[in-house]
Amino acid sequence: MKLYYKDKSIDLTFTHNPIIMKYKVMKLYYAYYIFDCNRYSSIKNRYNIDIIMVNKENTIVGYKHDMHINTVYENKKANNCIVTPVNYFKSIKIGDKITIE
Question: What is the pTM of this model?
Answer without folding.
Answer: 0.90
